[in-house]
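Researcher: I need the complex structure. Ligand is 1-deoxynojirimycin. Inputs:
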Amino acid sequence: MYQIYPRSFADGDGDGIGDLAGLVRRLDYLRPPGEPWPDTPTLGVDAIWLTPFYPSPLADFGYDVADYTDVDPTFGTLEDFKALIEEAHRRSLRVIIDWVPSHTSTEHPWFREASSSRDNPKRDWYVWRDGKADGAPPNNWMSAFAKVGPAWTFHEPTRQWYLHSYRPEQADLNWENPEVERTMHDVLRFWLDLGVDGFRVDAIHRLGKDPALRDNPEIIVVPTPGTAGRRYDEDRPNVHGRVRAIRKVIDEYPDRMLVGETYVLDQRRLGAYLNPGEGVHLAHNFVFVHQPWSAAAIRGVVDGFEALIAPGVWPAWFFSNHDHPRLATRYDEGGQGAARARVAALLLLTLRGTPFLYQGEELGLPDTTVPPDAIVDVDGRDPARTPLPWEPPSSVGPGAGFTTGNPWLPMTDQAETINVHSQASDPRSMLSLYRRLLRLRLTMPALRSGDYRSLDTGETVYTYLRATDDQRFLVALNFTSAPVQVDAAASVEGRSARLELSTDPDREAGAELHLSALALGPDEGLLIRLS
Ligand code: NOJ
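Model: Output:
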């Protein structure tokens, strides 16, 4: 699953902002390999997830929706969206869109009505309360954005506070109100009828709050594993009935799916959203994203999740999205960011489950420095949202094939080497590594659907097997910047081990390896075929 941030993917009309027409023109880059375009080089993903493209005043770059059933003119029209679905499906690409059910823009007509008077019929579509006697907000809940502070804003004209889990321009919908729930279900049907293949459900854990709005036990801004399950403002038991009802709507249509933005930092609580047949099909695992670059830590999370999920549950793994620093920057402690990003690619694409790949990660794009006068996001996320470089600026100009205009956020200053065109023809590039890995997943049943079992090879090397009845791969990942040798022979029976791929572009595939003395270079990952 490839995540597209439409503002930064491809600009079709030269205004410096990506749009649907630009995206359609670039679809061939993404589609699965093979018929009917056997010779064109492609990345080779199965599906795309589009972050919001709905009409929005952009207080939170589209996550403040002002109309759930239309396209913002910046991106095009509903007709353009229909064309996108058709063109994507023609290329065997599924299309998942973002659904933002927990809050609307305060510019949404529903909120305008709700805020017009205390007795407006839409008043109860949002969460309104009187303040405390001393003039303080109704409770101690905080916005998820540190800069915002309390999750309540006082509305002077009607002299009550309204709840916003994010920015004040994003008012929380009241999911205690059945009319809200029904209306939001109809939004799903609107897009399902147009042929979308599923939804990424924004902030799904926020659909379940304490109806009594009790204070959190402490002031919580940034969630931690310690606060998971102890809060009244999210992930309450009432969320699961709501998820079940959403799933029922999806199941009215054949072959559609849900992936939850389940931001709960406790894997057991995460697993509760994945009840087979009733929950979301996939759940984003933020515990995984928050791990340090450590073999033991990451193995612990993967093994822990595999052990607790119910039979039939299918994991989903991701390292990056539009809310987090990019991989090559996040794990860079002294220049190893690029090599580690290659190890992470091997990990992501060989774990059991669906990998989510954020646009630009396939090029090893680092965060882009955004000068203070160009900052637009309230929460410091601009550096991971800058435009995708398609071609070298020396041949197409400073827009690097993303735009002929002025990009809305700065283009990376590394676009000369980090761009799709240059990397596509370079077998040593990050893009070539991703393409190879994606093709292996497509053609090797063990990597696609085989069992997973990790091995004990010490604290610094994460080693695991992926196996079906007749195919086996061993993955060994060195999380340190020193060479290391491990002995995997004790836990793996088999006669021969052959190197299928190394993340080190200088190491050739094909060599026979000895499992009792597997040598890994600094920041190197190996994919080994066993027989
Ligand atoms: C999660 C989205 O990914 C993020 O970008 C947004 O700010 C919040 N949800 C609020 O919708």
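Model: Summary of the prediction. The chain is about 25% helix and 15% strand.
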